[in-house]
Amino acid sequence: MLKLDEIIYSDNGRKIGYQYSYSNDISKFFNSKEAYYIKYQVDVSQLSKSINVIPFLANIMPIAWFVGFDVYVDELDETFYNSLKELKEEFSRHFNEIKQSTLHVNQLVKNQIDKDNCGLLFSGGLDAFESFTRNIDKKPYLISVHGADIDIDDVEKWEEFKRFNQEETLLDQNKLCYVESNLRRFYTYEVDLLVGVGWWGKIQHGMALLSLIAPLSILYGIKTTLIASSNTGEVNFGWGSTSETDEKVRWANQSVLHDGFHLRRTQKIENIVAFAKKTGYKVKLRVCYSELRKGYNCSRCTKCQRTMLGFILDGANPNDYGFEVPKDFYDLVLKNFDKNAMMTVGVKYEWTCLQDKAKSIQKPFIVFDETKECDKFNTFVNLNLNEIVNRNEVKLQRQREMKFRIINKFPKLFDYYLKIRRKF
Question: What is the CA radius of gyration of the chain?
């Protein structure tokens, strides 16, 4: 069992600390040196405990579902209590590992949001920026979380992220909300291993990020929260942020919209380019959080590759949107499909969208050399992606888990390794 003993406020009411205790049989899943906390830019201490407990439970309950232990809290928003039941059922459709567990609440509270404002989880990436440009007339509050994509100890990258936001004149600086939380560090690597590595992506991130908005929704009257979609209904696999899961995250009379679910990533890029042509404003996307990146993106990882290729296929120069296209760009792309490559169904879908787009155009945007780029572009068009899906899956999964264990058992050594890589 796990019990929330007390909610403690500090830093002039801006920081929520959760004091909780748990039985020895589940202690290996929790970081005894770092209890879960959240820090806002405003005082949230006067809000109902039934609201301020929501972020805590959104992070704890999924662990309880997979491990199989009961959770005890004093009070909770009634809508969110029912939301958790629906969420557990939804995750059970994709994950057989979910076990019996019960949430015990002494008092259920009905809460109300009186205004009708809009909020958007904002990472600065393609999905978030595209959602923002389509909903710009709603003037949404933009909520960014330190501790999600950027490690909570990485102050330099976080300050850089905020500077990027300040440089974007398209953004209303008065609507930027920054939240700090150790939502990826209060548990141990044993939690990741519950799903074979990848807890944050497969399970946690949708619920965890949305729940952080609960206190802000009361203070700012945010009745509708947008979270940008990653995929469309063309693919269906267990993931921590889908229309089925995100839109079940509710409290008070608030609702969540998994926004852009009808759009492929290539279509989102088309919308960004169309927005630039209409307004003359080319946004600087931040799709990459590589440890080795400098500036907006590293422009070399697979996520950067796919995004840059999307712009190229739409006849636009990626260099105008926060990237620096490398000379060996197409070589990097084609390396994803060599004999040693392994591709999941989800990643295959991303490349399929790009391949479908490539087949529909006459010629891509040329960055350096037309002859060489068109030749390699045609090679990409003719690839058989079905031959690559799940190839070497068992071998690479074992390697991934081994690497994960080593990193988590020797974090200081890994940090030293990263410093060496950055230097050279």
Answer: 22
DSSP class of residue 342 equals: -
Q: How far is Cα 121 from Cα 145, in angstroms, rounded to an integer?
A: 8
Enclosing H/E stretch for 104: strand 103-109
Q: What span, in angstroms and rounded, lies between the C-alpha atoms of 46 and 56?
A: 17
Burial of 74 (0-12, 13-18, 19+ CB in 10 A): middle
242 contacts: CB under 8 Å, gap ≥ 6: 206, 231, 258
Q: How many residues does the chain have?
A: 424
How far apart CA 126 and CA 416 sit, in angstroms, is 31
Burial 210-245 (b: 16+ CB within 10 A, else e): bbbbbbbbbbbbbbbbbbbbbbbeeeeebbbbbbbb
* pLDDT value of residue 237: 63
**Strand 117-121's sheet: what is its strand order?**
103-109, 71-77, 2-10, 15-22, 37-39, 176-181, 141-146, 117-121, 222-228, 255-259
Per residue in 10-66, pLDDT tens?
999 999 999 999 999 999 999 999 999 999 999 999 999 999 999 999 999 999 999
Is the pLDDT reported for residue 218 higher than 80?
yes
Angle between helices 370-381 and 345-359 (to 10 degrees): 120
Output the CA torsion 161→164→166→169 (10° steps). -150
- The string of pLDDT tens digits covering residues 143-191 is 999 999 999 999 999 999 999 999 999 999 999 999 999 999 999 999 9
The whole-number pLDDT of residue 417 equals 56
| Structure token digits, residue 17 | 């600390």
Nearest-angstrom CA–CA distance, 140 and 256 = 13
Region at 347 (left for phi over 0; alpha for psi -120 to 50; beta for the rest):
alpha
Quick one: tokens of 239?
């993931």
